[in-house]
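Something for you to look into today, if you have time. Could you write out one complete protein record for me, on any chain you like? Leave the record below and I will have a look.
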Amino acid sequence: MPRPEIVPQAASWEAEFSPDGRKGRIKGREMRTLNRNCRALVDRCEPFTGSNLSGVKVTDKIYVVYSYGWYPLWACIAGKWYGHNSKHSQTTSCHQLFSKPTGEITFFDTVGDLSSIINYKKKVINHLTHQRQKIRKGQEL
C-alpha cells in the first residue's frame, strides 16, 4: 500500500512569524516568541512569551526567565545574571539552552537558592523604593 504524501506546512507556519521571531496577531492571540529565538530578548531583559517559556520583569531591576511559568531558569538582578545547576526535565533543559544569557553567570546549587535570592532582592528593592517615596513626600511637604 503506498504511503500518503506528506504535505510540508513550513511555509504557512513561518508566515505567521515576523523576522524577529514573534508571532503576529492571529485570531486574537497575543504576540509570541519562538523559544529558539528568545536569547536576544533575554540578553536585553525584554518581556516575552514563548511555548511554556517566558521572560518577566519582576521589578525595574529584576528580570526572570521562567519555564512553565513558575520554574526560574535565569535571573538578572541589577545587571548581573544568576542561574542554578539543578537537574530538570528534558523540556526544561531545552528551555534553559535556548534562553541562556550571554555573558558571565553566577550559578547556585539548587533552584531553591535561585528563588530565594530573587525573593530577597525583590523585598530589598521594594523596601528601598518605598523609603525613597517616603523621603520624596517628606521633602515636598
